[in-house]
Design goal:
The chain has about 160 residues and is of the alpha+beta class. The chain is built from three helices and eight strands. Strand 2 (about 35-40) and strand 3 (about 45-50) form a beta hairpin. It is globular, with a radius of gyration of 20 Å.
Length: about 160
């Protein structure tokens, strides 16, 4: 395997700034694509999916034979533990943000809610998506990647003190 090093890393250092819950949810709601992480055969599984944020919950549409649909159907009343990640990171500058939500996923069983989500969320896969899964966040974390602030001259090794 050959590693392509034609795309150089940005010269400026980066810093990671923690986001509060409200800002993380606002950013998550500003995009429609993310990654759902769940357990399959006792191993982590990641799938790209599109989503909608509805009243603080993440909703994705699934199909009858999807592994996540099966897991959610088999889960007890508390649901199945999942993680959901979405981000926007510029490939050239490496600036942007990332949000991770951990919570419990449940199948949406109410027919009226299913119809509503079918109107709000058009699947990007060409497949019948007749189920919906709602993720209720328990833990929301996020970071913003920014250019690092310059160190003051007095703090630098060449600064006069």
């Amino acid at each position: 395997m050959t590693v392509d090093r034609t795309q150089a890393l940005p010269a400026e250092p980066r810093q990671s700034i923690e986001l509060d819950r409200d800002e993380a949810l606002r950013l998550l709601g500003s995009v429609s694509l993310g990654r759902i992480v769940f357990t399959r055969h006792a191993l982590p599984t990641v799938r790209p999916v599109n989503h909608v944020l509805d009243d603080g919950c993440i909703v994705i549409r699934t199909h009858e034979t999807a592994a996540l649909t099966s897991h959610a159907q088999e889960a007890d009343g508390s649901g199945v533990v999942v993680a959901y990640e979405a981000d926007v990171i510029d490939p050239d500058t490496h600036l942007g943000w990332s949000v991770v939500v951990t919570g419990y996923a449940h199948l949406v069983n109410d027919p009226d809610e299913l119809v509503r989500y079918q109107g709000l969320l058009v699947p990007w896969m060409q497949q019948t998506m007749d189920h919906a899964v709602r993720i209720r966040p328990e833990l929301i974390t996020g970071i913003r990647l920014t250019a690092a602030e310059h160190v003051a001259e007095a703090d630098s090794p060449t600064g006069d003190s």
